[in-house]
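User: Can you write out an input/output pair for a complex, sequences first and structure second?

Assistant: Here is one pair. Inputs:
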Amino acid sequence: MRVKGWARTVRDSKQVVFIELNDGSCFASLQVVVNPELANYEQLRKLTTGSAVEVVGEVIASPAAGQRVELKATEVTVIGLADSTFPLQKKRHSFEFLREIAHLRARTNTFGAVFRVRSALAQAVHEFFQQRGFVYVHTPIITGSDAEGAGEMFRVTTLDVNKPPRTPEGAVDWHEDFFAHSSFLTVSGQLNGEAFALGLSDIYTFGPTFRAENSNTSRHAAEFWMIEPEMAWYDLDDDATLAEAFVKHLMRTALERCADDLAFFNKQIDPGLVARLQHVLESSFERMTYTEAVRRLESSGQKFEFPVHWGANLQAEHERYLTETVVGRPVFVTDYPTEIKAFYMRRNDDGKTVAAMDLLVPKIGELIGGSQREERLDVLTHAIRSMGLNPEHYGWYLDTRRFGTAPHAGFGLGFERLVMYVTGMENIRDVIPFPRTPRNCEF
Amino acid sequence: MRVKGWARTVRDSKQVVFIELNDGSCFASLQVVVNPELANYEQLRKLTTGSAVEVVGEVIASPAAGQRVELKATEVTVIGLADSTFPLQKKRHSFEFLREIAHLRARTNTFGAVFRVRSALAQAVHEFFQQRGFVYVHTPIITGSDAEGAGEMFRVTTLDVNKPPRTPEGAVDWHEDFFAHSSFLTVSGQLNGEAFALGLSDIYTFGPTFRAENSNTSRHAAEFWMIEPEMAWYDLDDDATLAEAFVKHLMRTALERCADDLAFFNKQIDPGLVARLQHVLESSFERMTYTEAVRRLESSGQKFEFPVHWGANLQAEHERYLTETVVGRPVFVTDYPTEIKAFYMRRNDDGKTVAAMDLLVPKIGELIGGSQREERLDVLTHAIRSMGLNPEHYGWYLDTRRFGTAPHAGFGLGFERLVMYVTGMENIRDVIPFPRTPRNCEF
């Protein structure tokens, strides 16, 4: 057989050279055995780590532990030598160091595995929705709307910032900008997705979203991918049922299709990972109102950094305690206080809560957030006003409630959060090929 | 059975009301037959176009032409009335008009079909590559590199454009910007994709790209999606072979899975569409060098608006003449003059051409552009310099040639161009859910 790949390690043993060859297609490397008979044996003894080589040889049962076969080379061609300054020499490298060489880190065990799992999960997302007849919608990345209040936004412009055109009053004249007004990078495709769901019934988005928050944490990136399904005719219960099936489909796919990569993460990165994913897959997810959740937290006797009381946001410590200790499996917390949720969530009849849901899972807390949307034109208009927003800025969105409105619901899943959950990687910078964070936009 | 959808039309006939109900899941509407026995019959006689309704009834063979079955209603519930100002009353609407109500147009026959086809094609893209073991890579949207010269770029910033921070010399101080230097929206993920291919072997991207070109044509949008596979160990021939299989997979998927939608386009939008797609699917694609193509064009006797000569870019008229008249089927034109192609394309031994390819197809000309990449460090560095660019700006990119370089190739397909080709729609604004063009960033 003929194989091509990069030498992960080269070991010059007595009368034989071992090349550990990997082409990135799977976790395992292939051990290539080079005997002195080969014409370029002396050259190969000095082969540098990271070099690209092509090998012709015979697959034979391997006497070595940990591998069934090895490749007995009959011909080895060096395709591209690695300069001896190649930074990925055989030793442990810190993730911090590897971030500085993001263009090379896919050639390590860890990052090859991360990006294979990321790809498999992305495909699982599409499969899940397409099999159910959902229409994949590319909602816009550049948006003229800055009114969602979901976070700080990046401005998109072609104006000369050094000398922008000005109005007679001296303000920047945004009418001169590319889109003839201020424009930004999207923080969510939801409102656009709703418009399509109220016509195509079941849709989903899967695209990049942006936050210009200057927070340098292991969980925040300025650019990340989000999945946002939106379903007409769904109420909150239907929404949760779909989200549960979705999460289980993702877990099942990872466990089945990425078994080798996950075995690695389970061993080297996050002991207990595979059992945790398996547990999520096999659990029936609990459902509990926010009111009940607060009651259970209050009566738990547990000391929290942030005190719990009805009306307050649940903090990560509360969320984890709920899913890990109170219920011991994934739980949907539903029907949150109106005041702490977004204007578009459907008002419940109790006059104080909305039909929102968060899915909490062991180890990280919130994985998914969703809601039934307010489909009643008058209630929605009132909600927009009561949040201090101007209904006139939501003209097209309100149109969808004016012309054949229907109950609908949806949820959002941060894709990087999912990849972190499935791999056990703890820094968002390590699950994005080329991460963008404050003061960092290399490559 | 129970169905939910929107009334496309309501017809009050003698003693019976017909509601044409559609939920966006497929092209065909379901005819609902409402008899006077129903308690709310008088209400339903006045049901407005666009209203959302839920119907319980019995599926019966239909006496009407063009449909096998209809739904005899036993219960009809009006879920959301459409205001009588609903713009999509039953009549022909121009595409121009419908663009102004992009939030509603998915509820028309044409745009429901366009966006279902778009979604099916997106899924076909993923299937094709995932089945072959390609890793889907999310290359960055925000980039610090403005040096590719592939087109004008949008700036991304969080600076206050009205009063940006200044250096002592009075220039805008980009060190104060979010990423601590100038940043832009990407025009291509290729260079990042190459870095991943030289580690994972076979990868593809599928994400949004941007051009800040102020050109208001039917083919240009400021925001569009692009697919860019990149394969280590591939030469130009392998690249073309993969591209041919890819295009055929896309045609086959559209013809098989979107038969009803395509039948509509074939009838109403672009007569000959289905035959054209079928022809592409069944053809063996020709391969021809640029030099040969120029010779054939010169000797054709055909009059062109732009004269043909070796060294010039082929114009759309030349491309279409080649594929439609000279060859009569899709053709890869390969090995273009170095001067008219990008720096990263592999120099051929003849000293005057590069290993580039364009796939030309009947009706539109270029559908795909690709190349084998220059994998030789010295040749690539020289090429960068000879294009007037600074190799120091390509440090990480050149690293991939320094540390185990390997032959590799890839291509790019503009996704909207594909959707236009498969639907016959002639304006890019009509295949994007919410298009972004100069002076237009609504919704």
